[in-house]
Amino acid sequence: MFLVWTLLSLLLLMVLLLAVPLEWGFQVRLGENHRSAESRIVWLFGLVRFRLNNGTGGRNKPKPPRRPRTPKPKRRRGSPMAVVSVDGFIGRVLTLARRVLGAIHIQQLDIQGRMGLGDPADTGRLWSVVGPVTAILASPRVTRIHFEPDFSDPVLDLQGNGRIRLVPLRLIGLVLGFLLSPTTVRAFMAMRSGS
Questions:
Q1: Where are the transmembrane segments (predicted)?
Q2: Could you give the CA distance from residue 24 to residue 4 in angstroms, rounded to a whole number?
Q3: Where are the alpha helices (DSSP H) in the chain?
Q4: How far is C-alpha 191 from the chain's CA centre?
Q5: Of 94, 89, 131, 92, nearest in space to 113 by CA
Q6: Fewer CB within 10 A of the end CB, N or C, for the chain?
Q7: Tens digit of pLDDT for each residue in 138-187?
């Protein structure tokens, strides 16, 4: 009986810890001569802090040459496109995406950038996709997103920072609910069988 109470206490403690909000802050700079990224995670009301830095300050080092791959024996795999044929799966995926985005609270988001492909026609096509997306993302009052097209030069210059808050228990519940739903199980079985 003592073992059961101990396991229940540990489970309750884990649920309580996962119910505490987690805050993720980031700062990114991506330019022609400078790439850096800094990320920090604050949890348990500031008692637990993680900091990740990836600042190169200059051009990236060249990658070492890859070793040639040895061909592996082919295994019969199921078709990932078989999940599309399962009734209701696409709706479940869209519902999951909407709920996950609803569970993430943006406290502050500031992104500024300049992009161009060197050809005015290609840049215009790219901008026809990026422009509306930035307008949708900039709709909350706490976000400020500003992108400018550059029709003459190929360029990608991006800098941004932000703070996002989420409750891990809520995200875990959403993902588990999606994975254990009968529709997802049917889609997984259809993908495995390839039909």
A1: 171-189
A2: 35
A3: 2-18, 89-103, 120-137, 168-179, 182-193
A4: 24
A5: 131
A6: N
A7: 666 788 888 888 888 888 899 999 999 999 999 999 999 999 999 999 88
